[in-house]
Amino acid sequence: MIKNLKCISGLSDIPKVVALFILFFTVTLGFSQSLPIDFENSMTTSDFKNFDGGIATVLANPQSNGINTSATAGQIVRNGGKIWSGSLIQLTSNLNFTNSNCISMKVFTTAPVGTTIKLKLEGNGQTDRDVQTTVSNEWETLTWDFTGEPAHFNWLVFMFDFGKVGDGSVNSTFLFDDIKQFYKKPSNTQISSPADFGGGIVEYAKVYTTAKDSDKRLSLDAKKMFKNASQPLETEVAIFINPKKQFQEFLGIGGAITDAAAEVFSTLSKDKQEELLKAYFSEEGINYNIIRTSIHSSDFGLGSHTYIEEGDKKLKTFSIVKDKVKRIPMIKRAQELINEDLVFYASPWSPPAFMKTNNQMLQGGKLLPEYYQTWADYFVKFIEAYEAEGIPVWGVTIQNEPMATQRWESCIYTAEEERDFLKYHLGPTFEKNGIGNKNIVVWDHNRDLISHRANTIFEDPEAMKYAWGIGFHWYETWTGGEPKYDNLKNIKESFPSKNLLFTEGCQEKFDPKQYQRWSNAERYGNSMINDFNSGTVGWTDWNILLNELGGPNHVQNFCFAPIHADTQKNELIYTPTYYYIGHFSKFIKKKAKRISTTVSRSTLESTSFQNPDGQIVTVVMNKTEKPIHYKLLVGDYEITNNILPHAMQTIIF
Predict the structure, then answer these.
(1) pLDDT at residue 525 greater than cutoff 80
(2) Which of the 8 DSSP states describes residue 570?
(3) Checking CA distances to 19, which of 102, 168, 334, 496 falls within 20 to 30 Å?
(4) Helix, strand or coil for residue 593?
């Protein structure tokens, strides 16, 4: 029974006979239901025109992941109320927030736990604003906070969003009561950490979501109110954050501008080029600040090349003129957007053919000992040439994938050979040429053998002093095993002064029918969360742009990128991976500190950083088929939240 429903309206009381007449003609799907309703004292304010209490039964169609738009929902609606597509109820028009900033209502539903209830504000020439929350199978009061929004909106629409709730159609009843518009005094202090929450002051967390089978793509869709924390139960899912426990400093996130990326970029129209650059490197996009490139060629390009004439042992013909045509112009345009936060580094795939044991750049081979110094000098010339173009070089890796004999550019170093090249040649050569401040990263290969490389190089004091840290890729799963995150933790524990840097990862085996394959994005989410929780300071994706064939690649090693270009149509194709990466890169700032974050269930994965301004960024991923309700506890405060199936959230407070 619903008692004393209060309809927020400026009208005088409606006689009970009219109310009963309306109730009698309420339309439902699947079943009908009547409730004894008391309309006495039902209309108290002029802010809402329609109703304050009623009943709706709506049909969810999980096959289309949402409301069956051909259905019509029923509820008590008065004075201009309107039903849209079986899932939308217009609450009011000409909504003003001049003297208020919150809306609340009591709700009850028989829909599955985790059902989303959304309010949608539609403005006249203003950006639409969606906010949402979820409900359980009991009466509860939901509050939506519109602090900071424009003072006026044309429409306020109430939406049901059941998502995927199982096989077949589901009939669910939704009850609502006691809609209010009110003012909540915001905190007058800028919080720098949850430790600054004091005196019971309520603060809000913003929730950004990307979810499969939905239109959510880095969408701000909720503001969650902090309240005093209670002891979590074993039956609850909880995330625990402790800002007092801080770990590595965040370097950044980015991707590689290869010859392939630059080639595809050059085919796009100017407006599409600008769109791509802003999508990656601007604050309106996902705010990349790391760029990796190759020292001369890699497999991702139109062919092999070096910066010298073959056989030039003294490097007299060294020139980066080929890079100046397409690669460097693209890098410089990205650099303009990144500004002072740029972290630019380079990796060689192979020395020139004459310097190697197999006399070719492809198919592995080793650097001949007599060319160790020549090759170290080659690095110096690369850095000097790029910096002469106005591109500051943060550092280099010694060799891309030094234990892989590939059919493309590759070169093999044992751990001892890489150690000695660093110790006797590359490190001293950098110092001799006044670039000892450039960072040198060892290994640059998979997590499986990384401990042996770290032990061999970092246990040698003379070699270790030249190494900033160790880089790694994620391709150890080619054996069918799981990613070896524990190896990263071991290195960080064994050599705490050395840094971990993710230098490359991509989804292999390109298939143009699988641009939107969600598991690709979840592979990124899983790696980024676990890599950061293992002590990684920065994360670098592979090609930032490839064409509709997954290339160009001169040995047909085609792969996915977060964004592809259909060069025939001059279109950009954004994959779910782009948005999953963005849940980290858009919000975590350079020099942020990772803070302690743990989860009570394996169904969720999470990591957190605290930005230099004190703002906390928590990323949460749900790879399961079901929505998950969870608590997020920070010190003495908590919020409750829901995450959709196959979804990523960023929570900012």
Answers:
(1) yes
(2) T
(3) 102
(4) strand
Catalytic (active site) residue 401: yes
Backbone angles phi, psi at 166, to 5 degrees: 135, -170
To the nearest 10 degrees (0 to 180), the angle between helices 450-458 and 485-494 is 10
Among 356, 345, 352, which residue's Cα sits nearest to residue 296? 352
CA–CA separation, 229 and 366 (whole Å): 60
Cβ–Cβ < 8 Å for 297, 307: no
- Predicted pLDDT at 1: 26
CA dihedral 32, 38, 40, 41 (to 10 degrees): -80
The string over 93-129, giving b where at least 16 C-beta atoms fall within 10 Å of a residue's C-beta and e elsewhere, is eebebeebbbbbbbbbbebbbbbbbbbbbbeeeeeeb
**What digits encode the pLDDT tens for the residues 361-404?**
999 999 999 999 999 999 999 999 999 999 999 999 999 999 99
Contact call for residues 408 and 349 (beta carbons, < 8 A): yes
Comparison of pLDDT for 323 and 104, the residue scoring more: 323
d(CA 349, CA 375): 13
- CA proximity to 156, closest of 51, 70, 57, 74: 51
**E strand segments, 506-602:** 536-543, 546-547, 563-566, 571-574, 593-599
User: By C-alpha distance, which of 136, 202, 232, 208 is closest to 631?
Assistant: 232
For the question of residue 431 being annotated catalytic, the response is no
Angle (deg, nearest 10), helices 576-585 and 518-533: 20
Helix (H, G, I), strand (E, B) or coil at 20: helix
Tell me the C-alpha distance between 234 and 22, whole Å: 46
102-142 confidence digits (pLDDT tens): 766 666 666 555 555 555 566 544 445 555 555 555 666 76
First to last CA, the chain: 39
**The predicted structure's pLDDT at residue 636:** 87
Q: How far apart, in whole angstroms, are the C-alpha atoms of residue 483 and residue 376? A: 33
CA distance 222 to 209: 9
- Paired with 574 in beta bridges are 563
List the 82-84 sheet strands across, edge first: 82-84, 88-96, 152-161, 115-122, 129-135
- Rounded to 10 degrees, the C-alpha dihedral 15/16/20/21 comes to -20
| Active-site entry in 203, 263, 418, 504 | 504
From residue 611, how far is each of 31, 137, 252 by CA, in Å? 52, 37, 12
Q: Spot the catalytic one: 263, 401, 418, 638.
A: 401
